[in-house]
Amino acid sequence: MLKDYIDKENIGICYKNYSIKKHTTFKIGGICSYYVEVNSSHSLIKLIKYLNKEKYRYFIIGNGSNLLIDDEYLDIVFISLRRLNKILKLNEHVYLVDSGLKPQVLGKKIIEDGYIDALPLVLIPGTIGGLVYMNASCFKKSIDHIVRGVICLNQEGKIIFLKDLKCGYRKTCFSKNHLIILKVLLDFQNKKENSLELLNKYQEIKRNTQPVNTYTAGSMFINGINYQAWELIDKLGLRGFRINDAAISFKHTNFFVNLKNATFNEMLALIYYVKISVLINYQIDLKTEVKIITNNSIAYS
Length: 301
Fold this sequence. Notes:
Elements: H1 2-8, E1 12-19, E2 31-38, H2 41-54, E3 58-61, E4 67-69, E5 74-80, E6 87-89, E7 94-98, H3 103-112, H4 128-133, E8 137-138, E9 141-142, E10 147-153, E11 159-162, H5 174-177, E12 180-187, H6 195-209, E13 215-219, H7 229-235, E14 242-243, E15 246-248, E16 255-258, H8 264-282, E17 291-293
Parallel strand pairs: 2-5, 3-5, 4-17
Antiparallel strand pairs: 1-2, 6-7, 7-12, 8-9, 10-11, 10-12, 13-16, 14-15, 15-16
């Protein structure tokens, strides 16, 4: 049994038949076969090798943002990296950061040191690994501009170091090559005395334009070269449109929210209602930024 192995090898904490919605920002998700929080990168390597050998299906989660998980039973091992959260300052402006570190914690550190590089990114409710994995951006600042390398784990459980992440808008090489991010090398160059003041400005803008303090997974659809997803949705008059407790935010139409007790099927129905409406009216096939996880498909979009 997986839990016996994890306890014996002191890999971390493990729960069987666990409600995964507790660890998603949407607060949607069913019972998974196992939920594991690993103690260290070394523990993660041992666990991945064991899971591959025993043919378990698994999925790595950070803060549980950017995810919509089926609320049926899931025969999937969810592995949380939340305990991998250290920061090591290598020199004046280079930091080695664990993938499970929250951007807000990193933000506090770089503000203390006076840096403003990609400062808006610390407002994203995810983990550093998650931000790098999807090449996250906020206020036209993307994380690839400060990443100098990534230590990651391949499917065979071997550690590799990557410099070229093949970044594009909302994409990197990690999903295609099934790589797990362990640590990220970040290089900060720009200093300003008013870094905290600047962050407060970004926070105020975000409070006024996005549904903060709600059950949301972040931006639902990927923007295109010639369009912004929120504008297409707004032009269709769908601001505030809802299917029971699954709703399009009044503040920002590319943010979908769980008002209280939205189900997976209700949120999925809302997604496809918008996709079909946009396709019919604008001949644009919107792609979800949020990853959708079911028993039949892990992270389709």
